[in-house]
């Protein structure tokens, strides 16, 4: 988990996590100085190591739950474990990161007059009673469930962000990110795309939870990064849904993985987890109209790019060249 701060010609700081590292690549490529602040709980140094030695890049091992003093122009606040397996592992740490971590990053932004972008989540809609989800929908969230550390945590982070905006005149931006996949995802983070891809590559059965009829919408990471940067640079606060409206049941996703990796991959049904949202699909009209953004990469095109990366990391370069 990490907060990325960017200084323009100055800097910013994203993270060594999955999304953060792709964001850093884009920011560094356009010439920003970037400070990555990451406690490396779920982020991996390998994700940003290719920038080591670049004078415009700096990485600080720091937990945003503690205060920090820096000088930057923009703060992309991405710090928080985002996979249900990771965030349920230590729920108190998760909510602390969302609340105290966000408070610290907002305090920092206020002190230095930086623009602050919160990466919130589609989970603020809980198990939604409206479909697809529009930003004006207030959600259906269980405040005492096993996912609450994450979804209630992010809801509070949104509240804090708006209170700093109204109370301290801070420039803020809020993105609600829907399920995202791509290279550099943690292989064993327990999320459905990483699980299915790793399972198919390892010739293990694909584990479908429940009846597999629940839906998600999967966005390729480069589309998300483009959306985050447009949001940061634009004039609108949000919140904005950033996700790909293509909706798949988990059984349909399993079929795409079979088609991409191994048509003979078996499917094994497992008991579902508690409070699992039944449906999730973003309405992205607002992002289209106000940010001029929409995703470009369909699941069937993005998945092979992730598979190449997973193959390398699971089997090593040589084996992947041979397969
Ligand atoms: N903070 C920080 N870096 C800064 C400024 C503030 O980490 O450069 C933290 C600070 O420790 C506090 C939080 O951000 O816990 C909120 O700061 P703010 O100034 O808004 O509130 P206050 O410190 O007055 O409670
Ligand atoms: N899921 C699944 N098999 C797995 C992991 C997850 O069928 O191996 C299902 C899970 O029950 C949920 C969906 O996939 O309905 C998405 O889960 P994930 O943990 O990826 O993210 P979420 O959208 O729940 O945060």
TrEMBL record:
Keyword Cytoplasm: no
GO annotation (BP), single: D-xylose metabolic process
Subcellular localization: Golgi apparatus, Golgi stack membrane
Listed Gene3D superfamilies: NAD(P)-binding Rossmann-like Domain
Enzyme class: lyase
InterPro entries listed in its UniProt record: NAD(P)-bd_dom, NAD(P)-bd_dom_sf, UXS-like
Main location: Golgi
Pathway: Nucleotide-sugar biosynthesis; UDP-alpha-D-xylose biosynthesis; UDP-alpha-D-xylose from UDP-alpha-D-glucuronate: step 1/1
Keywords: Decarboxylase, Golgi apparatus, Lyase, Membrane, NAD, Transmembrane, Transmembrane helix
Gene Ontology cellular component terms for the protein in this record: Golgi cisterna membrane
UniProt-listed Enzyme Commission number(s): 4.1.1.35
Boundaries of every NAD(P)-binding domain copy: 16-304
Membrane topology: Single-pass type II membrane protein
GO molecular function, one term: UDP-glucuronate decarboxylase activity
Cofactor(s) needed for function: NAD(+)
PANTHER family in the cross-refs: UDP-GLUCURONATE DECARBOXYLASE, UDP-GLUCURONIC ACID DECARBOXYLASE-RELATED
Functional note: Catalyzes the NAD-dependent decarboxylation of UDP-glucuronic acid to UDP-xylose. Necessary for the biosynthesis of the core tetrasaccharide in glycosaminoglycan biosynthesis.
Entry similarity comment: Belongs to the NAD(P)-dependent epimerase/dehydratase family. UDP-glucuronic acid decarboxylase subfamily.
Name by which UniProt lists this protein: UDP-glucuronate decarboxylase
Native source species: Triticum turgidum subsp. durum (Durum wheat)
């Amino acid at each position: 988990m990490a907060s990325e701060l960017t200084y323009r010609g100055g800097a910013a700081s994203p993270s060594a996590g999955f999304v953060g590292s792709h964001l850093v690549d884009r920011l560094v490529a356009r010439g920003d100085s970037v400070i990555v602040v990451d406690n490396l709980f779920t982020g991996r140094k390998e994700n940003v190591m290719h920038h080591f030695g670049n004078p415009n890049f700096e990485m600080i091992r720091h937990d945003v739950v503690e205060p920090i003093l820096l000088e930057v122009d923009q703060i992309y606040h991405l710090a928080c474990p985002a996979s249900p397996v990771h965030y349920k592992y230590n729920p108190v740490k998760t909510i602390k990161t969302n609340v105290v971590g966000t408070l610290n990053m907002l305090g920092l932004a206020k002190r230095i007059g930086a623009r602050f972008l919160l990466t919130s989540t589609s989970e603020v809609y809980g198990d939604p009673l409206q479909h697809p989800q529009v930003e004006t929908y207030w959600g259906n969230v269980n405040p005492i469930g096993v996912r609450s550390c994450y979804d209630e945590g992010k809801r509070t982070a949104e509240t804090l962000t708006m209170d700093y905006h109204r109370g301290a005149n801070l420039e803020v931006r809020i993105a609600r990110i829907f399920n995202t996949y791509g290279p550099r995802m943690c292989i064993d983070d327990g999320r459905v795309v990483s699980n299915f891809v790793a399972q198919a590559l390892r010739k293990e059965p694909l584990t479908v939870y429940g009846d597999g009829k629940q839906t998600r919408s999967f966005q390729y990471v480069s589309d998300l990064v483009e959306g985050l940067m447009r949001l940061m640079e634009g004039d609108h606060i949000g919140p904005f849904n950033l996700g790909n409206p293509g909706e798949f049941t988990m059984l349909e996703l399993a079929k795409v993985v079979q088609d991409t990796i191994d048509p003979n991959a078996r499917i094994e049904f497992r008991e579902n987890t508690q409070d699992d949202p039944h449906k999730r699909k973003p309405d992205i009209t607002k992002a289209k109209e106000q940010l001029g953004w929409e995703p470009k990469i369909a699941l069937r095109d993005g998945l092979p790019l992730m598979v190449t990366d997973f193959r390398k990391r699971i089997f090593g370069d040589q084996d992947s060249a041979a397969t």
